[in-house]
Amino acid sequence: MSRPMLSLDDSDGMATLRLSGRLVTDSLDAVEADFARASVQARVLHVDLSNLEALDTGGAWLIADLKARLEKQGVQVQFTEKATPRTDLIATVAAALPSEKGIEDLPRGILPWIAGVGLKTAGVGQSILSLLSFVGQTLASLATTVFRPRRWRTAALVSQMEETGLNAIPIVVLMSFLIGVVLSFQGASQLRQFGAEVFVVDLIAISILRELGILLTAIIVAGRSGSAFTASIGSMKVREELDAMRTLGLDPIEVLVLPRVIALVIVLPILGFIANISGLLGGALMSWSQLNVSPGMFITRLQENTDVWHLAIGMIKAPVFAAIIAIVACWQAMQVRGSADSVGRHTTISVVQSIFLVIAADALFSIFFAEIGV
């Protein structure tokens, strides 16, 4: 059987592809790589089929696939033969080519599932190691700059405090006020059945000061400021601005990460305190309107039955939550690769991971304070 051969002449602005031998399925391996590498600079490619001894659908598919690929590159493909059985076969195969690449069917069964679980577990382990490494780099950079005031990025720090703190006050106040209203309303509907409406003050105070005020504030900050951290630094990485910083001898962690981490650690306790005040105000107004608990009675009950530790616990959590949100957001930004799509994907991941870790840290705090009796 004559083996198929392919010759491509792309000179003098004219391109001609000559095929010879038996271009059938059994012998396609001899020219498949040549077809895959074939490319022309001319705008028109003439395909000469006159020396072909045989052609079947396998060979026609190779020719039709090459024709489709070159036409996408702006090359016009013409056959030297007109309206022959060979060209008709190629046209039929070309019409049957799929317009889109199919999605590979994933392997099924218990073994592929176990392998997938193993790969995901290994990926989680690598992510944890990468995050711990980033935390170490951040702490090392902080230790390097803390005793060198000249290296502090004061302008960047103040700018981040304004963006993450001052500009976030309206949404935090509104959210906390509504949470206080909801807690008071739901508590009133239940406590009224037992004639214990006055205890709604204890319910609101402990819930907001100890848990909900700082937790919901951290979740809002994670969605608002954490996503902004990832998007801004990730976009800089896509535009290769981080590489330019390193070329100039600047450390991206010192310039970009530290101001954001420090700013969030400073402003989140303040936002948490504002959220507590707003939540108590919302609860007091709803208690006054639904339970006839006057503002004076509300304040008296608050002072008599609310320990200062309820407020202190929330304030203790705030810097930890802030560090988690800022570090995870900046770490995800450093994982961005290549395109704007990667920026969006890692921004979403940073918000999800930040909220998850904040809730996990809150659970650990609750267990710890319960064990020490606070």
Helix-strand sequence: EEHEHEHHHHHHHHHH
Number of helices: 12
Structural class: alpha/beta
Q: Write down the overall geometry.
A: elongated
Short recap of the structure:
The protein has helices spanning 32-37, 57-72, 85-96, 110-146, 154-164, 169-191, 200-238, 241-247, 252-291, 295-305, 308-334, 340-371; strands spanning 5-11, 14-23, 44-55, 76-79.
Keywords:
about 70% helix, Transcription Regulator spoIIAA, alpha/beta, 4-stranded mixed beta sheet, about 375 residues
Explain what the structure shows.
- Helix 6 packs parallel to helix 9 and helix 9 (252-291) packs across helix 11.
- The longest helix is centred in the last third of the chain and has 40 residues, at 252-291.
- The chain folds into two domains: 5-96, Transcription Regulator spoIIAA (2-Layer Sandwich), CATH 3.30.750; 129-371, no CATH class.
- The N and C termini lie far apart (89 Å).
- With 374 residues, the protein is α/β, with parallel strands linked by helices.
- A four-stranded mixed beta sheet has the order 1-2-3-4, covered by helices on one side.
- Helix content is 70%, strand content 9%.
